[in-house]
Specification:
Blueprint lengths: L5 E5 L7 E4 L5 H12 L3 E3 L1 H10 L1 H12 L7 H15 L1 E2 L4 E6 L4 E4 L4 E3 L2 H5 L8
Helix pairs in contact: 1-3
Amino acid sequence: MNLEELIAWYIYPEPHGTNYLEEDLTKEIVLEIFDYSQILLAIITRKGWKCLFEKFGIKELIEIDRVSGWLEDDDLGEWILSFYTISIESGYDPTCKALGVFDSEKNLFTDENNNCYSIDWSAIYKLKEELKF
């Protein structure tokens, strides 16, 4: 299997764990991945975050997380920030829909075309004003 196709990985069963691919992504599987991530037994790749945001969007991801409780926060803006932070640190910026590398010390994201820009965390927090539950 090509590792570039990997969306997420779960440590069990040993010795190789469980690989998740894009075609595996259902709400039930995402819930499972969130639950495993919550207890540090799974990771979501940058391509995984890209697929999650494209397929489900932040609203649906939050609805799935209401069941999981992985990143749940009483403040919707902070909840959104948690998703965006993990995604950006993993290498996918959902605001610009770009894969790349994030430098947290400089707050700079460099996409695959070598474009570099800072992340506007306050604008991400304000996305809560656009979500209706």
